[in-house]
Amino acid sequence: MTSDLVAVENRLWAAADQLWANTGLKPSEFSTPVLGLIFLRYADTRYAEADAALAAKGIAPQDREPMDYQAEGVLYLHEEARFSYLQSLTEGANLGHFITNAMIMVEEYNPELRGVLPRGYNALPNATLVELLRLLAPLDLQGDAFGKVYEYFLGNFALKEGQKGGVFYTPSSIVRLIVEIIQPFHGRIFDPACGSGGMFVQSAEFVRRHRRNATTELTVFGTEKAADTVKLAKMNLAVHGLSGDIRESNTYYEDPHKAVSGRGANISGRFDFVMANPPFNVSGVDKDRLKDDARFALGLPSTDNANYLWIQLFHAALNDSGRAGFVMANSAGDARGSELEIRKKLIQGGAVDVIVSVGSNFFYTVTLPCTLWFFDKSKRSGPRADRVLFIDARPWFTQVTRAIREFTPEQLEFLANIVRLYRGEAPETDAGSAALLAEKFPDGRYRDVAGLCKAATLAEIEVQGWSLNPGRYVGVEHRAPHILKFKERLEELQEELEVLNAEAAGLESTIAENVSSILEAV
Which of 86, 205, 75 is nearest to 145 (CA)? Predict the structure, then answer.
């Protein structure tokens, strides 16, 4: 991202944040209308570009029809849905009405967006809408820059909304590392907990960086249980010039994309790539409804925790050469009982490829560290069949704010290059990771590095009780063991406390419902 674009993003956000502070609205009430206007400004820019292209083809303005614009790959905009038209209205006009009407007309002429665009503009003061239009009007951005601005605003609104924001937004730093490791050059991508669609956007960006056309190379499929978040995802795809099949669905009980087909030994997945950031440690899933579901062929966990339901969903949805990358709670790597048995089957099956420990404070909602899991079903018949690569990325980060961390482009590229070397692929150094590679891997080939990475055999993993905790394998470098053990143990205790708090909240709700039922019956 260029420094000019960063300056634009910062200026826009500072102005929008100031406007929000003067509205008295909750972040969620302000964010969706603002994102809708960024979307409309993008659509208007693309429409103007198509106008110029049609004029160059000799098609007069009065002869142009919606299908002509759609053939140019842009949304058709009625005159009163143009951003320029909204700008032309006087400050005394009821802008909330006109903007809402513009959104309705965009949907009318572009059925793929029907029911997606925001409507709540009458809730914003007219003066605020005037300033938002003025703020966005001068934007002169090309290519995917509008998409970057949209993503930037999504992230900042997620930060403002705290816990609620984390439901729909995964920090781009985490998403990019997942994408760089699974390398979705071509094929069908599935995210069964897709939030605002960040996994799809970063996949498309990955394809573009490698000089390919994301629109023709990728087909995206997603499910998300919150209707408002589905709308965010569809807008996010549109503002990045992408289309996809995003559906409102409860992934535990429903499989609207037919991700898995067959029974018993004939089960097969549909997708080339699966990426996700599922909710951690969810309790209360009705496992009686899942008993005959082919997606959970490795067994249902006996604990009231959905982590291993998600893990199986991702694994089952992959075709025989598919790759998956997803975020998971640290506790899943060492979970015992029935979860251990499921994990053991996954490891012995040969699909577990890479496990990466990520430090704390990468997410807006929790300070806890997490783990990234990667599956690769194609490796089961190759030289990596009986190995799993463990990477400890916890020491690698840059401090963005006191509460938030992320990977620098150099660090992110370096971590992905460890996996590339492990797979026998050429590393990439466009982001400046050449010096780190030369320091850690001087021969230009993969090797185990204490405190950083270890390619463990299945026999070594069995000795460790089938643990997928990188800390058990990579060792320690430049850190006092007693400090490391204290830090790891404190993080484990913090995560255990969060799980117990979630379970307590669920029990409290169940008790309240039961007491209410008893009182009604008395």
Answer: 205
100 closest CA partner among 124, 76, 84: 124
Report the DSSP beta bridge partners of residue 273. Answer: 189, 323
DSSP code for 266: G
- 178 and 144 part of one domain: no
Cα dihedral: 302, 285, 234, 317 (round 10): 30
* DSSP character string of 75-99: ----GGGSHHHHHHS-TTS-HHHHH
Tokens representing 5 are 């674009």
Better-scored residue on pLDDT, 143 or 171: 171
Helices marked H in 295-433: 307-316, 337-348, 409-422
Residue 511 falls inside a structural domain: no
Helix axes 145-161, 3-21, angle to 10 degrees: 40
**Start-end of H helices in 110-162:** 126-136, 145-161
Does 214 lie in the same domain as 330?
A: yes
The interaxial angle of helices 172-182 and 198-209, nearest 10 deg, is 50
Strand partners, 327: 372
Q: 60 or 3: whose pLDDT is higher?
A: 60
Lowest average pLDDT, out of 421-430, 494-503, 512-521, goes to 494-503
Residue 251 backbone dihedrals phi, psi, to 5 degrees: -65, -30
Q: Let me know if residue 481 belongs to a domain.
A: no
For residues 22 and 116, state if they share a domain.
yes
Beta carbons within 10 angstroms of residue 399's beta carbon = 10
Q: How many domains does the chain have?
A: 2
- Quick check: is 249 in a domain? yes
Do 38 and 112 share a domain, yes or no? yes
Q: Do both 236 and 351 map to the same domain?
A: yes
Contacts of 272 (CB under 8 A, 6+ apart): 184, 186, 187, 188, 189, 318, 319, 321, 322, 323
What element of type H or E holds 202?
helix 198-209
Q: What is the mean pLDDT of residues 133-158?
A: 72
Q: Is residue 219 within a helix (H) or strand (E), and if so which, with residue range?
A: strand 218-224
Domain of residue 331, residue span: 163-472
Residue 397 lies in a domain: yes
Asked if 186 and 266 sit in the same domain, the reply is yes
CB–CB of 191/276 below 8 Å?
Answer: yes
- Looking up residue 78, the CATH number of its domain turns out to be 1.20.1260.30
Assess whether 360 and 213 both reside in one domain: yes
Helices and strands, number each (H, E), in the chain: 18, 13
